[in-house]
Amino acid sequence: MPSWSQRPQASAAFLNPALVAAVAATAARDYEREASGRLMPWPMAFVVAPLVLHRPTRRALPTSTRTHLTNWVADHPALVAGLAARSTSLT
After folding, report:
1. To 5 degrees, how large is the angle CA 44–CA 90–CA 85?
2. Domain ranges, ordered by start, for the chain
3. Fewer CB near the terminus (10 Å): N or C of the chain?
4. How many CA atoms lie less than 13 Å away from 9 in the CB half-sphere?
5. pLDDT digits (tens, 9 = 90+) for 36-75
6. Is the Cβ–Cβ distance between 65 and 76 less than 8 Å?
């Protein structure tokens, strides 16, 4: 991933650290609420932003928490294949 000064301005604004932190904080809060007070596991913080900030992935995410992750992964192999690269680039 190019340095901040070499990125297009829209990309730099969209992936700024404050926005990524806000996404992670919201996910942690909602996870705790849905998991009866259990805290979100630390590794999940590195997966949340690439899932919700990548438009094609965000649009493909299930609307219900009843959808099993294994089923979603099987239905969206191309999105899953790029997740590791997106996660690494955001860290």
Report:
1. 85
2. 8-90
3. C
4. 0
5. 999 999 988 888 888 888 889 989 988 887 888 889 999 9
6. no
